[in-house]
């Protein structure tokens, strides 16, 4: 492909994406394909001779588009958001277009330097303590990683190295392997699965401690677990606190957990993957109270801050611990700029680095602080609006509501909510997933797409209500049926109609 064809192909692809976004609201949010559908549509072998880009785009439309789940549809309310914005898409495109690999400073100075500045901007935007920033005098700093999972794992590895070094400095007769065999990590049972995974990967038992009835890990619970382990001769090493849990967006109390960790020299990592973006708005920063006790902090601009996947921001109070855990200096990587700019390869698992700072810069520059705050506040207000709608219908109960996430259910047996969600998923008009909250089966409703408006929230709410009508009708039907010892019975026989189900409860 020559450069002229690239211009045409690239422009056509941008048009395709733009058209996709203009029509996304009208598409069923979930695809209707079966497993293996794509293998049936593609040839078994690669093409012998090259084909035109026009054919490629046609294939995308014919084969790929039907198999997409539309994450940016305003009717997508599952999981947590994954970020998308046009500035970030263009940032990704330019990064691919430049095609450098930032494995050290000289391998592309702009890669490292833009990342340093962006991590300072971002840290200030969230109101993080100065000591986490690259621009502070101390050894703290920020880096962009690929995912929150990676960051939790990297934090664990750094905590492990630090603990081993600290203990061996105190008592040189200790053996590294003996120390490593005794290390323990802690988090709450509300943590993301990636937290448990980091313990598995890092060979450190991860104790998932019970959260309180609001979904928060409390200081007493942590302290008890630590004391129990110490009494057994084990060594507490790493704590992962949540600011915004995955099930209900609950916030652990850092001011309570922090001093406990600091007292025993336990590395405190803060996982704010989704909710961290809310700290761009000063009114939510009270939830950051106690963050000064943390050793590392992470949030995903790729979730809620309009930067396309992947872009996970990590700050550490002392980068030396990362570098000591990951540095395997080789002659060919040495260059004369050491010390003036961080060598980010020592802060991460892989050697090569993508230019993720570029899309982050485009988003910060084009939206500005106010644009990002507006986005966050708008999405939170939509979740509040949804909560209000649910509260108007007393067949339903709201279980939790925090940031852009509401969990709710049908009153009564869990089976009712299970039936509701399976009906909704079959219809494919909106997409939500179930969750568990204090033994109750709940529906998680997250405001995900940046295109979502009040009318979309109303559309989704009507979908829940109309399907609840069906379920509650059939419930009443079968109860009355059971009593009379007959099978199906018409609703009118039970003395109520669809519009007055409330009265029948
Ligand atoms: C989404 C999420 C994660 C996982 O994020 P990845 O970047 O996909 O690894 C971890 N923790 C919390 C609290 C999350 O919400």
Automatic annotation (TrEMBL):
GO terms for molecular function: aromatic-L-amino-acid decarboxylase activity; pyridoxal phosphate binding. PROSITE patterns: DDC_GAD_HDC_YDC (PS00392). Keywords: Lyase, Pyridoxal phosphate. One of its GO terms (cellular component) is cytoplasm. One of its GO terms (biological process) is catecholamine metabolic process. Its cofactor is pyridoxal 5'-phosphate. It holds the Pfam family Pyridoxal_deC. Coiled coil: none annotated. InterPro entries: Aromatic_deC, PyrdxlP-dep_de-COase, PyrdxlP-dep_Trfase, PyrdxlP-dep_Trfase_major, PyrdxlP-dep_Trfase_small, Pyridoxal-P_BS. Belongs to the group II decarboxylase family. This is Aromatic-L-amino-acid decarboxylase. It comes from Acanthoscelides obtectus.
